[in-house]
Structure formats: C-alpha cells, structure tokens
Amino acid sequence: MKRIRNGFIVKSGNELESATIYVEDGKIFSILPGDNSDFPVEEEIDAEGNVIFPGFIDPHVHFDDPGFTEREDFETGTRSAAAGGVTTIIDMPCTSIPPVISGKNFDHKLGIVQPKAYVDFAFWGGVTPAQIHSGEYKKTLKELKERGIIGVKFYTISGMDLYPRMPVPEMHKAFSYLKSLGLVAAVHSEDFYLVSFYSKLMQEKGRTDPESWFEGRVYEAEPAAIWTVVGITEKVKNKLHIVHLSTKEGLHIIRFAKSHGLDITAETCPHYLLFTVKDLMRIGPILKTAPPVRREEDRKALWEGLKDGSIDFISTDHAAGKFPEEKSSKNIWKDYAGIPGIQLVVPLMLTYGYHTNRFTLEKLQRLMSTNAAKRYGLYPQKGSIEIGGDADFTIVNLDKEWVVAPENLESKGKYSVVAGRTLKGKIVKTIVRGEVVFDENKGIIGNRGFGKLVRRKDENNNFSG
User: Fold this and answer.
1) What is the mean pLDDT of residues 258-279?
2) Residues 207-212, mean pLDDT to the nearest whole number
3) d(CA 49, CA 18)
4) Which helix (H) or strand (E) holds 253?
C-alpha cells in the first residue's frame, strides 16, 4: 500500500481540506482527513503542501500514430501529457493510417501505440460516407463499441482523403444508429460550402497573409454547421458533442439546443480563450488552427460559456506540426493547421482561469477532468477522487511562477503560441494508477508502455455537468 500525504483536495469552490490518500493495486483505497497514518505503507508520496486534483483528462488529441509520426507519436504525445499533469488522453480516429473505422483497425492501432504510452488513453472511433453507403457501418460501429470507444468523430469539412466529410443524409443514418448504441457523436463544425468557396476566393485574389486564413474559414461557417448537426439531433435525439467551439454565435446555438432539451455538450480550447485574429496577424503560422481563432467578442463569450456551464469542458485539440518546416511558410495556406497544447493546458487554465477569478478550483476540476469522464463513460474510474477509482492524481503548486520555453516541451513540435510567457501554477507530480510518471525535479520517470487502454462503460454514461 502507498500513502499520499501532506496535500490538500478541493472541497468546494476554492475551499481546500487536508487529506491523506491511501492507494492499493492502483486504486484509491481510503481517503482520510488530515495527516493520517492509520495504515502501514510500503511507499509514501509527499505532496509538499500542494493541491491534489483528480488526474486531468484531455478528451481531444491527435497523436498521429501510426501514419503521421513525423509530427507526433504516442510516446512523445503521452510524455507531453505526463509532463502537463494529464493522466488520461482520448485520441482521435482520423489522423492515423489506417483510420480507426473498424474493429480490425482499432486492434492494429492499439497494438502499435500501447507499448509506447506513458499515461492511460481511450480511443474515439470513426465512420466514413462509403461505409454508410455500403451498409457496413452498422457492423463496424458495433465492433468499435465492443472494443470500448467513447464516441464517434465526424467532420462537416475535411482535408483528409482517408477520412472525408460526412454529408447530411449519411450523418442522419449514422446519428440514428449511434443513438441505438448509446454513443456520442462529436462534430468538427464548419460549413463545407462556405469554407470551400471563400478559401478558394482568398487564394484566387493572391492573398497569402495570415488574416486571409481567418477570412477564408469564414466566421459564419461554424454556426451554420452547428445548426445543421443540431437539426439532425433534434430529429434523431442522439448524443451530440461540438468540438473546439470558437464563436459566440455557435455558443448561442448550443445554449438554444440545451434549453430545448437536446443531449448536447461542447468543448473549447485554450487558444480560442486567449487569442484573436489580431494575434494571428501578429504571430503568424504558429497560431494557425482549424477553425481559426476569432474576434475579441468571441474570446470573451467563450469564457462566459465556461462560467455558466454552456461549455462543458476544455480540450486542447493537440496537433503538432512538423517544426519548423510546416509552420514557417510565408504563404499561410501552405502551413499546417495545428498546435501542440497538452503540456501547457493546465498551467494556462490556472493562470488565466483560476488566478483571474474566472472560475474556482472546483470548476477547474470539473472542466478539465470530471465532466469529460462523465460524458464519455469513464467516471468514476477516471475524473474523481473516490474510493475504488483509479489512483490518478495531478499534484499542483498553485502559485509557482515559471516561463514557457518551447525547447522543454516533450512533444516533437518544439513550438508554442505562449512561448516566453510567465505562467502561474506548476505541475509538481503526475500520478497514474498510483505510480509517479512525472516529477518536476526529475522529469519523466514513468515507464514506456505503462499507460493502458481505458474502455467506456455504458452504465457510467449519464452526463450532468
């Protein structure tokens, strides 16, 4: 048995209480108040007076393995997670070759990535229009559910040949079947026709500047696409999730859908909370993402969405481009649309969320751990500090200040949109199933291959943020 002592857990709001946590066989055995020594232990972990959070979860990452490992792989991606206090990641199905669109492809990916993982992981599943047309999708989605996927990813616009966009008729069929399976449909929402036309128009005009990316990925594309998928969900009554929300208008639609009883959740990312198109014009391709960062009114609205519960959790959409080759062109249309984010998400949200009084520690815990675990059927195994749950913890020094140095990132992408900034809040230790995998003084100390697949459990899929 192990003991984690000299730490504080979040009671409510910003109120903390001293606690001692006992761990046995990777599970939480007991949680007792104060500095307790009731049980004999073989190992002790000193939290050094810091806050012990349930292990943070990033529910939206692209670790590109197998297939695009020149950008990232599961080893560097999960090392980044460990260094950032993230104990569980959920990897997308689309940036793998082959994509995770069948049981066979799931097994293939798992066999490659599990031996590399430093933290625990779950998988999103996928489906293509061709599978809908052939009728194969009912077989493949059932195979994927049986293997424990937490949901299925869709694009209304896609730049990936092996993972095309899903038109409305096919999406209706897929949503209908997912309802019967009880799986969440997650959608990248940008209207194909608007983006295609205006992106082409920008390039025909010879525009290569960063602002042309913002204008080509036209603002109205996101709310238009969200209305589309909300319209389908209104008919089908399936579980819907909007990924990387970036616009105030999109947020209005999500509020409308929730107020009318639709089973819909949403996430946003740090870059949409911290940056605007003016920053894109200043910083250039390093800040290029899809969808792009938007306007100041959108940035402010997203913070309000987090505050009032309209936005349910925070993700990174971690997608590291090959640096500097894919992030340094003078033609914004040739640069890779993606940034590495997982190692910095917790300190960023402490700095700009908690320390600016935008939300409490309790709210931070829900936004970055509990809510995603509940939505995707991983709770209470993940996302909680409860007896019987996995002993996943992130120990954080709330007040330690430090400067972001991209060369210290564990990701293959050694670049950051917050390079040189002073952040307040430092990861002290990351603990996965009772084992310390990262220590701020020693770095990564976990073992390659220690991370395990976490499977969705149907009985734990009732979400209430």
Assistant:
1) 98
2) 98
3) 9
4) helix 248-259
Distance between CA 257 and CA 277 in Å, rounded? Answer: 28
Is there a contact between 251 and 226 (Cβ–Cβ < 8 Å)?
Answer: no
CA distances from 185 to 151, 160, 235, 314 (A): 6, 19, 14, 17
The CATH number that applies at residue 194 is: 3.20.20.140
Average pLDDT score over the chain: 97
DSSP per-residue string spanning 135-156? TTHHHHHHHHHHTT--EEEEES
Q: What is the mean pLDDT of residues 388-408?
A: 98
Q: Answer yes or no: is 206 within a domain.
A: yes
Q: Is 59 exposed, middle or buried (0-12, 13-18, 19+ CB in 10 A)?
A: buried
The encoded tokens of residue 3 equal 């003991």
Q: Where are the alpha helices (DSSP H) in 370-458?
A: 371-375
pLDDT band at residue 412 using 50, 70 and 90 as cut-offs: very high
Token couple for 87: 């104990």
Tell me, yes or no, whether 11 lies in a domain: no
In this predicted structure, the answer to whether residue 462 has a pLDDT above a threshold of 60 is no
- Domain carrying residue 327: 57-382
In a domain, 266, yes or no: yes
What is the structure's pLDDT at 465? 59
Asked if residue 144 belongs to a domain, the reply is yes
Into how many domains does the chain fold?
A: 1
> What is the reported pLDDT for 287?
98
Give just the sign of the alpha carbon dihedral 361, 445, 59, 222: positive
Sign of torsion over alpha carbons 47, 51, 55, 59: negative
